[in-house]
Amino acid sequence: EISVSRDPNTGQRAIVTKIEYYGHDAVVEFGLIESAYLGTLKARISGNTEFHLGQSIYVDHVGPIRWFANS
């Protein structure tokens, strides 16, 4: 699971590149800033969390890794 926050003390800095809304939930697409270019990653967020394109966010990994190939 990826946690997404506005708090700079909670993980790697990233920039929001896309937001897709699904009712009360959303998927935030982002690119990491301080590491080798890995493309973009996505995280599903819920509740009243609001982000906007170009915003700096901070992401961290919590729990087991789940990965799906694009095949």
Short description:
The protein is an all-beta fold and 71 residues long. The chain contains no helices and five strands. A hairpin with a 7-residue loop joins strand 3 and strand 4 (40-45).
Polypeptide structure, described:
The protein has strands spanning 2-5, 12-22, 25-32, 40-45, 56-61. The protein has a five-stranded antiparallel beta sheet, with no helix packed on it. Helix content is 0%, strand content 49%. A hairpin with a 7-residue loop joins strand 3 (25-32) and strand 4. The protein has 71 residues and is mostly beta strands.
Summary keywords:
71 residues, mainly beta, 5-stranded antiparallel sheet
Write the layout of secondary structure elements.
Elements: E1 2-5, E2 12-22, E3 25-32, E4 40-45, E5 56-61
Antiparallel strand pairs: 1-5, 2-3, 2-5, 3-4
Biggest sheet statistics: 5 strands, antiparallel
Multimer state:
single chain
Structural class: mainly beta
Strand order of the largest sheet: 1-5-2-3-4
Radius of gyration using CA atoms only:
12 Å
Find the count of extended strands (DSSP E, 2+ residues). Answer: 5
The portion of residues assigned to helices is under 10%
**Total helical elements:** 0
Strand content: over 45%
Judging from the principal axes of the Cα atoms, what is the shape? globular
Q: Spell out the helices and strands N to C.
A: EEEEE
